[in-house]
Amino acid sequence: MNHQPRPLAPCSLAIVGATGAVGVEFLHCLAARNFPVGKLKLLASHRSAGKTLPFKGQSLTVEALTEDSFAGVDIALFSAGGETSKKYAPIAVKAGAVVVDNSSAFRMDADVPLVVPEVNAKEIGAHQGIIANPNCAAIISMMPLWPIHQHNRITRVQLATYQAASGAGAAAMEELSDSTRAYLAGQDYAPKVLPHPYAFNLFSHNTKIDPVTGYNDEEIKVMREARKIFGDPDLRISATCIRVPVLRAHAVAISFECERPITEHEARAMIAKAPGVKLVDDRANNLFPMPKDASGKDEILVGRIRQDLSDPSGRTIALFVAGDQLLKGAALNAVQIAEHLVKTQ
Amino acid sequence: MNHQPRPLAPCSLAIVGATGAVGVEFLHCLAARNFPVGKLKLLASHRSAGKTLPFKGQSLTVEALTEDSFAGVDIALFSAGGETSKKYAPIAVKAGAVVVDNSSAFRMDADVPLVVPEVNAKEIGAHQGIIANPNCAAIISMMPLWPIHQHNRITRVQLATYQAASGAGAAAMEELSDSTRAYLAGQDYAPKVLPHPYAFNLFSHNTKIDPVTGYNDEEIKVMREARKIFGDPDLRISATCIRVPVLRAHAVAISFECERPITEHEARAMIAKAPGVKLVDDRANNLFPMPKDASGKDEILVGRIRQDLSDPSGRTIALFVAGDQLLKGAALNAVQIAEHLVKTQ
User: Fold this and answer.
1) CATH 3.40.50.720, domain A11-134+330-344, yes or no
2) Model pTM score
């Protein structure tokens, strides 16, 4: 891929998948963070072309994505699924854009940085035209572990997720609402987007299972991407990914083991100082991270920090986190990467 | 406590807390399992006295619980909260009844057997008048581990729960439905039963936190009771208990470590043969345990059985279970205990 650096501020942007759940949040983040937007091109499938979306008081018209969409674009934010990224990201790079890709298409490629800016922003500079935005559950889980990993290496992570509908897109969010409404009215509802009834139900993440290990694709993403984000191929990690009837914020129960003993007080102090995370660990008032409170928030909420009593060596800490799947889990993280691009080029 | 054995079949029964979520399921289980019911006395608070409940085609009138309620009662099934059990269970025992208590009041008492019949039915005979029914999440979590523990001792368990509303009673189930209906209609809803908004939200279990360990009461119950049920005070265990917006079946993500290496195939084969559990582990069709499928079922559903890849020694297995909180998590387990009493006395 021939990436030609060019001046980036103010910056000509394209959003691929502009009408999706993440696309809309790209616009929200760009506006809220006062990103130096020059030209802004909203791209989506032919089906969505002609729709309009609001941005900073203007009404922008969505164009159909074509091979000619990227002329003059500095940064292209992609969130339209792996197949679209595989086809159009190289085209965008060839046209001179830097692609920040929210799909899983390029995440594990050796020449593609996989970036959570609070963790490994330094990787951004090494890009060859594409920078990958990690899996949402990986971002949300690893954010609070990074400050600890730097002081007392984390050798093992076990986690179980409580993942919201938004990870499967706007249609899945609608299916959760519609099927729940039907359930409460005593009406039948045939799932269209997800493979199982979702009203007051939960299920193992709807990605295919690796027949050898028994882990599903989502879990494998979390595990592989965690190692790449931390730059630690030896990190031992196991994930169980579960879809719960929540609209847009993921939660994760995490247990992690350090090289040396660690107290909950040490862990809490390190997390409290870290950027992008917020302690919500109020035992007296039973107030801990909840999807309701994480929704619409930039920070990953972290609480229930305690010694994991199943490890008598005192090296294991348990905690519970919640983070907005569409913000830090997707759009916000990508926009933060774009901000680094603007600053450093 | 002076317990006087007396003939038990057909058996004079009392149900304390008959109008509650578990009380109604006691009646269901007694009828469905054709329990040898002689006289059946339904007891509840003064507020509920006079209500009627159906049982095998009859309509039974609920009486107010008093100190004189237990004359002639052989077995009393209690599910009306810890305070009621603390006050009335000794009175019932004094009157000659055997109490099967669903509250946590006596569970950790040294002279009170804590019983999951598939695991430790042999303890029932040692009772001094009271037999305790374990915490719902403890029953559901430990059922699939017992067949493995007998062959290859489990030394460590880490689990994260996905607990239904029913664990907090019928009023909490109603609050989940009502608050969700309000949310979907765009209306405000002030929580009355649970401390946090429940519609499309989840939260750390609403029991008080131990300030020393940071574990909440529910987690401490699961951890202590698991050790007592297994008769293994050395079992190292950590639980994270989370309330999810599901009506009546709990799910649990479990990782357990054995003394010796174990393969997923060995674990699956042992679980498949065990009573009271059902394998739902269909990787090809992505069909695993779900609350929807566990609701109304006697069996604990078990799936996602796989090697926990965070343990390179090959001694750790991950799995995911779902079980009806009101049935095997409460009423069914208690009725099974009562069946053992009838059989053995």
Assistant:
1) yes
2) 0.96
